[in-house]
Amino acid sequence: MKPLEIAVVIESRDDATGMVAAVLRELEGALQAYLACGKTHVIDIATLPLGPADRAALQQALGAGEIEVRINALGASLLRETGFAGIWWVRHEDVEGKLLCELLEVTDVPEIVRAYRADIEAASARLCGLTALP
């Protein structure tokens, strides 16, 4: 079976600023650095001069992955794997739904999802208490 080559074309729109290609290049370098030495990387896309067309083109280029995580703690957080393993689109909102930050994270699992050791130790103690019951 021959490999199938698929070209991705990002169509330009009138209100596009051209930032999409720069973000994709940064992600490419960050993903390579992560593979080489485990270095994570974060791009705060809320601070970039992205117009609506740029944002749509970036979402289209990155696509959607298989994993979505929702966290409700002092506001909502939505973490979505993109179509590229290791690249996550992360949104954090306050309790009123106002966007606090929007990030692209290059990592295996975003840090906010990981359980803290102290929490795991407390869970272990609680579980031991359950198994000690008659």
Automatic annotation (TrEMBL):
Coiled coil: none annotated. Gene3D superfamilies: HupH hydrogenase expression protein, C-terminal domain. Residues 21-127 form the HupH hydrogenase expression protein C-terminal domain. This is HupH hydrogenase expression protein. It comes from mine drainage metagenome.
